[in-house]
Every structure is written in structure tokens, then in C-alpha cells.
Design goal:
Blueprint lengths: L1 H19 L4 E4 L8 E9 L2 E10 L5 E2 L7 E10 L2 E8 L4 E10 L2 E8 L2 E10 L2
Length: 129
């Protein structure tokens, strides 16, 4: 009986941890260097996560045309520890790819990335759904 209770408790804890560490869904980025932002759809891609730009917005928040809509923005992203995910990230405003860190805090992702030893903040992304 104790083993059954311990197993059930472990399953509840693992399920809660998995839910708390889920970055799937739609995320609104912070403004980039040009004042533009985007809507990134993050999904599981095998054992990792990837995210595609599904909508672009100008500095006023209006929908805008962008050649980057449909482009993969994050890929090879996995849970590193606790609520930190690491992977790869493409920044359209700088046309550069970075080693990324995504720190999940509730409905916020704090994004940063490094390239050739130079790191930059990628802002805060807010969960839309």
C-alpha cells in the first residue's frame, strides 16, 4: 500500500513539473531594435521545442508584412534545468543566430542569447494562449 501511495504521489509531482515547464503555445515577443514584435508559435519538435513566427507587428502594434513570417525562430530547445530552456534562436532584426536561454516564469519567457561570446537580452515574451 505504501508503494502505491508513493507511486501515485510521484506521478502527481512529475505531472505538475511537466505542466510548469511547458513552453508550448503562442508567445508575443517584446519589441526588437526596430520597435517591431511578433507572435511565435512554440511546439514540441521531437524531443525538443521549436517556434515559428506566425505574425509580425509594427511599433504601433498593427499587423505588418514580414518576409520572416513562417520562419523558424527557435529550434533545438530543451529543458536545461528547473525552468531554463537552452537551444538556438534567430533574431530577424539583426539577421543573426544565437545560442539561446529561455527562462520561464509563469506566462513570461525571459529571452537572451549569445553569439561569439557576445550576449544580448532578447526581452520578455508574454504567453498569448
Amino acid at each position: 500500500m505504501n508503494k502505491l501511495i508513493a507511486s501515485a504521489f510521484a506521478l502527481v509531482l512529475m505531472g505538475g513539473a511537466a505542466m510548469a515547464q511547458d513552453i508550448t503555445g503562442d508567445w508575443r515577443t517584446g519589441a526588437d531594435d526596430n520597435g517591431n514584435s511578433g507572435l511565435i508559435r512554440v511546439a514540441a519538435c521531437g524531443a525538443a521545442y521549436c517556434g515559428v513566427l506566425v505574425q509580425a507587428y509594427d511599433g504601433s502594434g498593427n499587423v505588418m508584412e514580414s518576409e520572416n513570417v513562417g520562419r523558424q525562430i527557435i529550434w533545438d530547445t530543451t529543458l536545461h534545468s528547473g525552468t531554463e530552456f537552452r537551444g538556438r534562436l534567430y533574431s530577424p532584426d539583426r539577421d543573426s543566430t544565437y545560442n539561446s536561454r529561455l527562462n520561464l516564469s509563469g506566462d513570461t519567457l525571459v529571452v537572451s542569447g549569445c553569439r561569439l561570446g557576445i550576449c544580448r537580452e532578447g526581452g520578455r515574451w508574454t504567453r498569448v494562449n
